[in-house]
Structure prediction request, 291 residues.
Amino acid sequence: MLIRHTAFVPAYKPPAEKDFETIRYFVSRHKKILILTGAGISTESGIPDYRSEEVGLYARSNHKPVQYQEFVKYPKVRQRYWARNFIGWPRFSAVQPNATHYAIRELEKINKVSAIVTQNVDRLHHKAGSENIIELHGTGYIVKCLQCSYEVDRYELQQTMMQQNPDMENSVTMIRPDGDVELSREQIEKFRVPLCPNCQGPLKPDIVFFGDNVPKERVEKVRNEVSESDAIFVLGSSLTVYSSYRIILQAKEEKKEVAILNIGPTRADNIVDIKISTKCSDILMDLRNTI
Prediction:
């Protein structure tokens, strides 16, 4: 039997008792687990992922995420991005953590988690109270200038954009993983793009766009956390992008046990120790009380 939980959670089979016992035993025998999370854990909060069959953004629309080089090179690309992001921000920033985020926090409280490495830019781990978080692909909550050291909180920038675009029609239709929405060409073309107040340079969210690289110091920090851990627990990630997949490669090189809990296949299914395909919260919600 397949279950569809919300509009953005892919169809999945409910976990069997043996699935729960497998994860329970995995967590119970490790003391320093690095948890790697992807877009699949935020779908229950109402943020769609990119790749899930039928419900991911690639399946639901023709949307392709903005490319780093295009954003840097073309003012029109930046205008389109910021216009949509401006409209989508109130809803995106209001999204709340779900049972999986809180379950991870509970595992932290009993000293099972050494670090959380997340591919998500939504800060839901922060909202749930988690602490040692590495945002692998950055965050949508900070905006930086591409030409100088200026940076600004995304909430503050929203106020600036509201002042510059008082007549912008609020027409949210569908939120996206990176927080933007669809707008008409006319709406986009009349949008006034925010610029750096110090140098008038272009502003970009502190997100690693497609085609860009994760900063070297962040890569090194993740490598160190993997080495310091005694196991890796992947939640809600297909591990399609190399920045996450190489974490698994390193863990296996260091002979660490790796478990994956994700609806659907992942890039690392054939090299990990445990793979269970079901909704994360169905397994995690009752985990703490049994360890």
In short: The mean pLDDT is 89. The radius of gyration is 20 Å.
